[in-house]
Amino acid sequence: MNNLDIAPPEELTISLWRSLVLNFIDRVAPERLPPLLLTSKPMDVGMLLGDRLDRPWYRSIFTNIADVVSPEILPPLELTSSPVDVGELLGDDMAHGWWHSLLGTLRDRLSPERLPALELTSQPFTAFEADTWLQILDWSSLLDTPKVYLPDAPQSDVSYAPMDAPIEAVVTVEELAPAILAAQAQFKRDISRSRLRQKVWMSLVTAEVAFLIFAAFKFV
Prior knowledge:
It is built from seven helices and no strands. It has helices at about 15-30, 50-55, 55-70, 90-95, 100-110, 140, 180-220. The longest helix has about 40 residues, at about 180-220. The model has no long low-confidence stretch (mean pLDDT about 80).
């Protein structure tokens, strides 16, 4: 790691003419390399993806027809481990219709699944006398620094009116512009319409749920 070289390769600094000459020499008189010695047994992975894409279209058609007419008979799959039941997969759950989820939610709400009681392997921790009384300490008793009492801030001279003097409150009513009144009226109309639409949609949803429940009990 100490001799790590992150510089670009030397082939990038070769001039154009030298690169052309080297490529021509490699094509005319390639370097004689010794035969490759494999120390491990290669694994048969079938036809590579590149070779499969290079085949002409008619060969793929005949191969597909042959797979349909006489498919390859494979040996039965042998499982060396016992599968774990994880329930319904997420993809299968999302592939169901929306009515399946609605009926499942209604079933869970009306008759929820009875689960066994939770078994605790450890005893709950109880703080020192926390179940009898709770003591809240003051910040002054928690600080170790010496207590410093600052003087009160000087009060400004404020003149107060006598209590017997009547207080005259002047209320000024500002007239709203016509544009603001129109916007306020339009806003109220939009709210009333939205409430009406909400009631209509809720009635439709209720009718649809009732129809689904009736269909589920009738056709199941």
